Amino acid sequence: MKARIVYASMTGNNADIADILEEELQDYGFDVETSEAEFTDANDYLSSDLCIFVTYTYGEGTMTDEISDFYEQLKELNLTGKYFAVMGSGDMVYADHFCENVFDFEKMFKQVGAKEITKPVTIENAPDDEAISKIENAAKEMADQLND
Ligand SMILES: Cc1cc2nc3c(=O)[nH]c(=O)nc-3n(C[C@H](O)[C@H](O)[C@H](O)COP(=O)(O)O)c2cc1C
């Protein structure tokens, strides 16, 4: 099974989450490719079975340019028949906007026809042990559904 992880990270938290998830999925036998949103074309999802987006949220309801460019590319795809998962780190200080971009991408993946394989994983700031468990559980759900 091929998994494609695309992530956006300014200060490293979401890069760490992407790394942890990549290792977990590799342990389950997935063929994983990981790259930063800024240097990735959303079309790359078309060659994967499982499309994953890991993102920060900066700016209470808005998207940074790197995220909105990727979001606009995603909007044009048809991911029918593929699975997706979203996760990310934010800060609860932003209350109603906590991890908002994670949920923006959840909606968009659904809109372009992909099927959600596990619930969004939201993490507060840098991933601690509890957050790592959440990532591990999500990876297990992905493996349970996609591996024979
Ligand atoms: C100016 C600024 C605005 C932010 N806005 C939000 C926000 O709206 N929602 C949220 O959940 N987190 C917000 N955050 C917190 C970041 O998303 C959080 O620190 C995240 O872990 C950063 O990820 P990164 O290390 O991958 O860049 C904001 C942080 C800063 C500095």
UniProtKB/TrEMBL annotation:
Record's keyword annotation contains DNA-binding: no
Leader sequence segment: none
Family: Belongs to the flavodoxin family.
Task performed by this protein: Low-potential electron donor to a number of redox enzymes.
Protein name: Flavodoxin
Cofactor or coenzyme needed: FMN
GO terms, molecular function: electron transfer activity; FMN binding; oxidoreductase activity, acting on NAD(P)H
Keywords annotated in UniProt: Electron transport, Flavoprotein, FMN, Transport
Keyword Membrane: no
Boundaries of every Flavodoxin-like domain copy: 3-143
